[in-house]
Amino acid sequence: MEDASPPKQGEGVGLENVRRRLDAVSAREARLDTSRENGVFRVTLTLPARMAPGPPTETCE
């Protein structure tokens, strides 16, 4: 039997979980921002860039 009711609006539990995890591992340097405009839902994820300690490594080409 299929559910004919329209989909329910989410409560953002998943996005809040991601925000909390980012907060826990990045000391508030990372962010997850959301916006909705003209029917488009946008998520912007901002992560800090950090250099790894130690000597530089070669890259494969």
TrEMBL record:
It comes from Eiseniibacteriota bacterium. It comes from the Bacteria. This is Sensor histidine kinase.
